[in-house]
Amino acid sequence: MVATAITAPDLIEDARKRHKLSSAETKGLGEALMASLLLASTCKAGERVSLSIKGDKFFRQAIADATPEGKVRGFVIAKELESDIDTSMGPWQNGLLSVVRLKLNEKEPYVGTVPIVTGYLAKDLTFYLTQSEQIPSAVGLAVNLGKNRSVVSAGAFLVQVLPGASKKEIESLENNINQLEGLAARLAKDSDPTRLLAQIFSDAAFTILDERPLAFECTCSRDRVSGALKLLGKAEIEDMIAKDHGADVNCDFCGTCYSYSEGELAALLQATSSTAKR
Ligand SMILES: [Zn+2]
Fold first, then answer.
1. Which string of b and e fits 186-218 if b means at least 16 CB within 10 Å?
2. What number is the average pLDDT over the span 27-40?
3. Is the pLDDT at 82 greater than 90, yes or no?
C-alpha cells in the first residue's frame, strides 16, 4: 500500500486571495487543487496532471493543473446558486470528472472521463481511480475556513494498493475506505503530513519515500502574454490602442493581471509588422 498525504492551508489561502473566491468556491477549488497534486504525486518528473470537473448546478467548471514537483495552478467558475439543488448529492451535483495525464515522450495525453456520481470530489475521484484506472484507491479531501473566510486548515490523502497486491490487502483497503473518508476532516487540522500518514497506516510500520514543498505557481509570463497578443493580429492591437489606449490581460489560471500601455502595445504592433514583413 502506498499513501500520499498533503497539508496545504497556505497554498489554498493563496488561491482564495488570487481569485477573490467566496467560501464555497474556496472549498471547491481547494479540493480540486489538492486532488490534482495527489494525482500528480504518482507521476514521473516532467509529467503533468490536469483535473477538470464540470458541474451542472452551482459549480460550472474547475480546472487544476499539477506537477509531481508539487506546483499547482487552477481556477473555478461558479454560477448563481440555483434553487433545484439536489441535497442528496455533493456540491458538484451532476456532471463530468476528467483526468488528463500528460506523459513524457507521448504526444497524445491520456484522458479518462467518468460521470459524477455523488457530487463529492473525494468520493467521485475514488470511484474514478478504482473503476477507470483499475487501482483500488481511497481519496480524502478537506478544506476548513475560519470566520473571516480565510483558510485555517486544508489536508488531503490518497491511498493506493500497489499492482500485484494480494486479495487480502485490497479487501482491507476497501473495508477501511469509509473510515478513511471520515479521516480527511480530522487530518486537515494536523499541519504535519507525517502524522497524517501515521493515522492512515494506523498501527502498521511505514517508510517515508519522499517529501516535497507545495506551491501555487502558474506557467504564465509577460513574454507569453505578449506572444498571445501578437497572435491576435495587427487590427486587433490597433483597436486596443484606439479604443482603450492600452490593455489589461488577466491569466485565468492565477489571476495575474498584465497591463499594457499604449506605447507598449505600439511596440508589439511594430514587432508584429516586422515579423510579417520577413
Ligand atoms: Zn497565470
1. ebbebeebeebbeebeeeeeeeeeeeeebebbb
2. 96
3. no
pLDDT score of 260: 96
Cα of 181 from ligand 1 centre, angstroms: 32
Higher pLDDT, 194 or 66: 66
Distance 55 CA to ligand 1 centre (A): 23
Centre of ligand 1 from the C-alpha of residue 207, in Å: 36
Do residues 115 and 96 make contact, with C-beta atoms less than 8 angstroms apart?
yes
For ligand 1, the distance from its centroid to the CA atom of residue 203, given in whole angstroms, is 43
CA of 224 to the centre of ligand 1 (A): 10
**What is the Å distance from ligand 1's center to 86 Cα?**
34
Q: How does pLDDT run across 174-197, given as a tens digit for each residue?
A: 676 666 666 666 666 666 777 777
* Domains detected in the chain: 2-216 (3.55.30.10), 222-277 (3.90.1280.10)
pTM: 0.89
pLDDT at 113: 95
Cα of 197 from ligand 1 centre, angstroms:
32
15 C-alpha to center of ligand 1: Å? 11
Ligand 1 centre and the CA of 220: distance in Å? 4
**Segment 52-64, tens digit of pLDDT:** 999 888 888 999 9
259 Cα–ligand 1 center, Å: 13
Ligand 1 mean position to 246 CA, how many Å? 20
